[in-house]
Design brief:
Rossmann fold; 609 residues; Aminoacid_DH-like_N_sf; metal ion binding
């Protein structure tokens, strides 16, 4: 990257030196500034580090090599996850560069499924707090506690969870701070969101997890999960405080329970730029996979017959996105489009006689159309003859050989997406699905699987089929990047459709039918640029982009986006005086509340010179 560009003047430009007002051990203990053995000879003199580091100056590449060797010695995935967390607390650039260089290998360590294990063991592995912990018994302190994290211009992206439905493992209480942390790691890795401008939050409402309540080491609020009016008041106090304190920040809701996720999103979506990954992200990335699969099978979206097994937050979110896309494609109402989608949950097909949540009701079927009161998945497939089957049930093995063969007998290239996480909860594994369909199924999964080889090619010769991971990280970081850079006042339906189109257009299967339906993690930053480009263009078209001077042309807009994407490289440190320096330059992770506190902290910085 050259030292200047047409857009190097932008506030989020990643060129040029970084201002630093601290030195000695304060600098080395600040992950954003610390380079460890990579500090240059000049920096060691300028910031008084010469006696604090070994003599040899190393490159970032050498540090990555050493860190990878250390990582490789860890005995299991959870230990590797813990190692990476420790590295992140020491050197942010090295942490993200290590992940970037080994993303395919480490993705499942920093996210699903290993992050789920880390969350379950949060209180036992706890060493150092990260993120903002808000407590429902201290609602009056929400604004105060959030205010410690910066000034209005300091935060771009907030991820918040109440921990009720985490990664298929249920209620994890205060440990859900780690899902907020993990999602923000992905926004940086996949879309270049500046890591020092993000805020992970947990809304600790208590927990209904008896194992946690009975664990003497549990760090969260030790009481049953609060619901009703008090819960709503807590969520609203968070949202209103966050918007007042950080008016440009984009709010990402994560892993809220079924009864709360959709209604919270529906309540705030018309008012603020917000997103729920379980509802919208899962729906967007799944729709992109469906669109790619339909292209390969020479079918059209208007002809979709979709069965979703698992009518929770993710399943209904997918149904919503597909319904809306069908309605737009055919020029019909959403209610009419919903007739092409069948939702099945534990009791069976959802009908108008079922006890339904608001999000499920648009897809309920007339019970008089069915011979049994609660039709099973197999019964629905026999009657409906779907061409797309999606699993979000967390019921392992529920896509049986009989079910898959029944489906494939009515459509030549069925699109089958077992999406439940983690791997042990998948409805079926790709090898079985492909074997039962003689290689005809178009498969994507919710967790990574190895390519599958079988005698499905011409003259029954072995053919290897790559299986796409239908992971939200393909889409949600780019959506967030587009909203952050355009300073969108809202995230609209058209912006989401544009994001889906951006992902689907880059499907490897469009060029090779044996290739994955979705781009892999190795290409995710390029995908995020395309998604952000489409989101920004849509935001401008709808009049919700508040950033000025956004370029209009594709190439120029992509250059504008890339200029503002954070990269894990060591930029030179520029010495500045503490007086008048930014919060970032003074290594302050939070803002102090009074002038006396500011003076006190500045004096401590001076003593470190």
């Amino acid at each position: 990257m050259s030292s200047t560009s047409k857009f190097s003047h932008l506030p989020l430009s990643t060129r040029g030196p970084i201002e630093c007002a601290v030195s000695e051990t304060v600098l080395l203990n600040t992950p954003y500034f610390n380079r460890g053995s990579a500090h240059t000879a000049e920096e060691r003199k300028e910031f008084n580090l010469t006696g604090l580091l070994p003599h040899s100056v190393q490159t970032l590449d050498q540090q990555v090599k050493r860190a990878y060797q250390q990582y490789s010695t860890r005995p299991d995935d959870l230990a590797k996850n813990t190692f990476l967390t420790s590295l992140k607390e020491q050197n942010a650039v090295l942490y993200f560069r290590l992940l970037q260089d080994h993303l395919s290998e480490m993705f499942s360590i920093v996210y699903t499924p290993t992050e789920g294990d880390a969350i379950q063991n949060f209180s036992r592995l706890f060493r150092r707090p990260e993120g903002c912990f808000l407590n429902i018994d201290n609602i009056d302190r929400v604004s105060h506690d959030l205010a410690q994290w910066g000034r209005p211009e300091d935060i771009d992206y907030i991820v918040v969870s109440d921990g009720e439905e985490i990664l298929g493992i249920g209620d994890q209480g205060a440990g859900s701070i780690l899902i907020s942390v993990a999602k923000l790691v992905l926004t940086t890795l996949c879309a270049g969101i500046h890591p020092n401008r993000t805020l992970p939050v947990v809304l600790d409402c208590g927990t209904d997890n008896e194992k946690l309540l009975n664990d003497e080491l549990y760090l969260g609020l030790r009481k049953k999960r609060a619901r009703g009016e008090k819960y709503d008041e807590f969520v609203d106090e968070f949202v209103q405080s966050a918007r007042k304190l950080f008016p440009k920040a984009y709010i990402h809701f994560e892993d809220f329970g079924l009864k709360n996720a959709r209604r919270i999103l529906d309540h705030y979506r018309p008012k603020i730029p917000c997103f729920n990954d379980d509802v919208q992200g899962t729906g967007c990335v799944t729709l992109a996979a469906i669109m790619a699969g339909l292209h390969v099978s020479k079918q059209e979206l208007k002809d979709v017959k979709l069965v979703v097994f698992g009518a929770g937050t993710a399943g209904v979110g997918i149904a919503d996105q597909v319904r809306d896309a069908i309605a737009a494609e055919k020029g019909i109402s959403k209610d009419e489009a919903a007739k092409q989608i069948w939702l099945i949950d534990k009791p069976g097909l959802l009908t108008t006689s079922s006890d339904l949540d608001a999000g499920q009701k648009p897809f309920a079927k007339d019970p008089s159309d069915w011979p049994s009161s609660s039709p099973s998945l197999l019964e629905v497939i026999k009657q409906v003859h779907p061409n797309v089957l999606i699993g979000t049930s967390t019921v392992p093995g529920s896509f049986t050989e009989e079910i898959i063969k029944e489906m494939s007998s009515h459509t030549p290239r069925p699109v089958i997406l077992p999406l439940s996480n983690p791997t042990r909860l998948h409805e079926a594994v790709p090898k079985d699905i492909l074997t039962w369909t003689s290689g005809r199924a178009l498969v994507a999964t919710g967790s990574p699987f190895d390519p599958v080889t079988g005698p499905w090619g011409a003259q029954n010769k072995d053919m290897t089929i790559e299986v796409a991971e239908c992971n939200n990280s393909v889409v949600f970081p780019g959506i967030g990047l587009g909203c952050v850079l355009s300073r969108a006042s809202l995230l609209t339906d058209k912006m989401l459709v544009s994001a889906v189109r951006g992902v689907a257009d880059l499907s490897p299967a469009l060029r090779d039918p044996t290739a994955p339906l979705l781009p892999g993690v190795g290409a995710v930053r390029d995908v995020s640029v395309r998604v952000a480009r489409e989101v920004i263009r849509s935001a401008v078209g709808e009049g919700v982009a508040t950033e000025r001077d956004i370029p209009a042309g594709d190439d120029e807009l992509e250059d504008w986006i890339r200029e503002q994407m954070w990269e894990p490289v060591y930029r030179p440190l520029k010495r500045v005086e503490p007086a008048g320096a930014s919060r970032q330059a003074k290594a302050e992770l939070k803002v102090v509340g009074s002038l006396e506190d500011v003076k006190s902290k500045q004096e401590r910085v001076k003593l470190s010179k």
